[in-house]
Amino acid sequence: MTNGLVARFPGLAQEGYSETSPATWDYNCIAWAASDDRRWWEPPPHGFWPPGVPATLTLAAYTAAYATLGYQACSDGRYELKFERIVIFADANGIPTHAARQLDNGRWTSKLGSQIDIEHAIPEALIGPDYGTPTVFMRRPRFASRQPIALLRRWHTHLRSGFRKLFR
Fold this sequence. Notes:
By secondary structure, this protein is of the alpha+beta class. 27% of the residues lie in helices and 24% in strands.
C-alpha cells in the first residue's frame, strides 16, 4: 500500500507522512478518528453505529455520531492545546468518505480503510478522488475521553522526551 500511497494522495509527497500501524480490518478511519481501534464504524448493517444517530451516509449523521463523543463543529483544523480535533472528508456529492484525528503534537492521524494508519502534517494532504476534501471540522476538550492514568502516562512521555532533547 505504501508504494501506491503517494500516487493516490500526491499531497503526502509534499507534506510527508509516516506509517504508524499495520493494516487491519479491526477498525476503519471513522472509528480511528473516534479513538476506537476495536470496532468498524459504519451505519448498519455494516458495523457499529452510536445509538440514536441516523443510520445514513450523510455529513449530518456522521457529525451527530461524533457529537455523541463530545465533539462540536468548529471552523478549522488549527492546533489548540486545549482541544482535540477531527475532520470529516466528503466527496463531491457530500457523502462522507474519510475522517482523521489531530494528535497531541498538532499532526494528524488517518486509518486508510482496512490498510495502514499514517501520521501526516495536514488533512489537506489526503485531498483527492479517494477521499474528496476536508469538509467538517469538529473539536472537544483534549483530555475529555482519557482516564487520569492515561493522561499521566502521556505527560510523563512528553517530559521524558523533552529532557532527552535538552541533554543531547
